[in-house]
Design goal:
single chain; about 325 residues; alpha/beta; Nucleotidyltransferase, domain 5; 2 domains; five-stranded mixed sheet; 8 helices; 10 strands; about 35% helix; binds zinc ion
Length: about 325
């Protein structure tokens, strides 16, 4: 057995509502220890709590060989940038230009840190242990407080100039849907129309309490389907994993939501792309919820950490 297989690693899913921290070992998705902290509006104080927790875990389980951090954003992923590991332009109070990696780097000098977006993290978790096992090309979308997308192309996580911002693409609205959208940057982008807060703004009711027969579901599902159609046309993913709270669809129910979304997606494609995966039968395993459920993010951060430990382990 090579040394990295027993390495203790640290994982952080840095979300806009909570930070989930975990300790893992080996190469599986087993979490030895786990804690969560409210994100709040004071990043320095939160990161000091996080560091204290990992130090206590280190006393319990042995030294941490690497960290994986999957963070809400936008984030600076450019390793040559002086603000690598920072949140950048978020509207979240207190978090503009917040340093996530710095406190970890100072507290655990020399320990490798892998850093990516929360959605790429969740995508990576699903690729290793969940709904994207064995797939080299897929996307992971989360619809919750905001909308984000990540994924892999040819087995590599999607990066580029910065990172994909799939939630901010321009999308179609169902005829008669006059909601102006609420993205502070773009108004009626996908996130501006379909995020949890957008649904609450357009109906006066949180998505989870929206009656199943509320017409807003038609508007939301129509826009979601057209957004996924755009992504399918651009990236040709072999599967679309849809996570986040909105897909649970409250009183409508997750199963009905997915069924209607798949039908609407096929209508939006209008039979243009030819693949068994997009057939009436195939579509049920093409647009799917995450297999790791709400643990996709923290498991992805764990996978990032395991790889970082492997890269630096003596052979
Ligand atoms: Zn936007």
């Amino acid at each position: 057995m090579s040394p990295h297989q027993n390495s203790i690693v640290g994982a952080i899913e840095a979300g806009g509502t909570k930070f989930v921290c975990a300790i893992g070992n080996g190469s599986g998705a087993t979490l030895l220890g786990r804690a969560q902290f409210a994100t709040g509006d004071n990043p320095a104080r939160l990161m000091s709590e996080v560091v204290t927790w990992f130090s206590s875990q280190q006393k319990k389980y042995g030294s941490i060989a690497a960290f994986g951090v999957a963070s809400f954003g936008p984030v600076d992923l450019d390793k040559s940038s002086p603000t690598h590991g920072f949140i950048t332009t978020t509207p979240k109070p207190g978090w503009q230009h917040a340093d996530i990696l710095g406190p970890l780097r100072r507290a655990f000098p020399g320990v490798p840190l892998a850093f990516d977006t929360d959605v790429n993290g969740a995508a990576f978790g699903e690729a290793r242990w969940g709904a994207a096992r064995g797939l080299e090309d897929f996307i992971y979308i989360t619809v919750g407080t905001g909308i984000g997308g990540g994924g892999m192309a040819r087995g590599r996580l999607l990066h580029g100039l910065v990172h994909p911002e799939m939630g901010h693409i321009s999308v179609s609205q169902r005829p008669g849907d006059a909601f102006p959208g609420k993205c502070p940057f773009h108004g009626s982008c996908w996130e501006g129309l379909c995020s949890g807060p957008a649904i609450a703004a357009r109906t006066g009711t949180p998505a989870e309490l929206l009656p199943p027969d509320h017409p807003a579901w038609d508007d939301i599902i129509f826009t979601m389907a057209h957004a996924l159609k755009n992504l399918a046309c651009v990236l040709s993913p072999r599967r679309i994993i849809l996570g986040g709270s909105v897909r649970k669809a409250g009183l409508l129910g997750e199963a009905v939501f997915f069924e209607r979304l798949r039908t609407s997606f096929r209508e939006a494609l209008a039979g243009y792309i030819s693949s068994p995966a997009l057939s009436e039968l195939g579509i049920a395993s093409y647009i799917v919820p995450p297999e790791l459920g709400d643990d996709a993010g923290v498991c992805g951060a764990l996978a990032l950490a395991q790889d970082a430990a492997k890269e630096t382990a003596p052979s």
